[in-house]
Design a protein that fits this description.
A two-stranded antiparallel ribbon has the order 1-2. The protein is globular and about 50 Å long. It contains 10 helices and 2 strands. The protein is mainly α. It folds into 2 domains: 126 residues, no CATH class; 65 residues, no CATH class. α1 runs antiparallel to α2, α1 crosses α4 and α4 runs antiparallel to α5.
């Protein structure tokens, strides 16, 4: 199979897997599968952040949360340790799902391992493209999910999580975050988090902390 046809078929199969998501959200006037929407949005942000994105990065962008609903958050304790256990389990699950799809399509092992490294963050934050994927993920969260979490988390927790989120992002992505088309409440709290994000580790973000 030609490289472009190989890529297109992989994307088609990843999308088909994510279209199985029983959870939906309203987009473009109709309810659509949530994980399918999220993966496409991350993919689009990756293309905007780096027009020269590698094939492996684009595949990872589409597949890094494939079938996420299979392992729900409530399967693990509502603690910081439980959150990290869940995220670790998800990373391996997504990597395995992506690998199976790519092998069935006919991708070589070296490209599959590169996609796995992106999905499991084995090459983050040292790899520039891995940072792009994290930036895209964070930008989609801010753009489409933040408003649904502010009430659930409360103002103080939201500010704490946003400060950690911004610390993970590159300067370019931080600037783009401040330019997102957010509602007044969401924009105000992102600006407050940006003004007070301070120093810290880019790896310590957890909504259960």
């Amino acid at each position: 199979m030609q490289p472009q046809r190989l890529f297109d078929e992989a994307i088609r199969r990843i999308d088909a897997a994510n279209r199985e998501d029983p959870r939906t959200e309203m987009a473009d006037g109709e309810f659509q599968p949530r994980e399918w929407l999220f993966a496409r949005r991350v993919f689009q942000w990756v293309e905007r952040l780096t027009p020269s994105a590698s094939e492996e990065l684009l595949l990872a962008a589409r597949a890094h949360t494939v079938r996420r609903w299979i392992i729900p958050r409530d399967r693990y304790p509502r603690t910081v340790a439980g959150y990290h256990q869940w995220r670790d389990a998800l990373a391996q699950f997504h990597a395995n799902e992506a690998e199976q799809i790519l092998r069935e399509v006919g991708y070589p092992s070296d490209k599959i391992q590169a996609v796995r490294a992106f999905v499991t963050k084995a090459n983050w934050p040292g790899n520039p493209e891995a940072r792009i994927l994290e930036d895209a993920d964070c930008l989609v969260f801010l753009e489409t999910k933040l408003d649904g979490y502010i009430d659930a988390w409360g103002e103080n927790k939201t500010l704490r999580i946003l400060r950690k989120t911004l610390r993970k992002m590159t300067p370019d992505a931080q600037a783009r975050a401040l330019g997102l088309n957010l509602g007044p409440r969401e924009r105000a709290i992102v600006l407050r988090a940006a003004a007070a994000k301070g120093p810290g580790s880019p790896t310590d973000s957890s909504p259960d902390s």
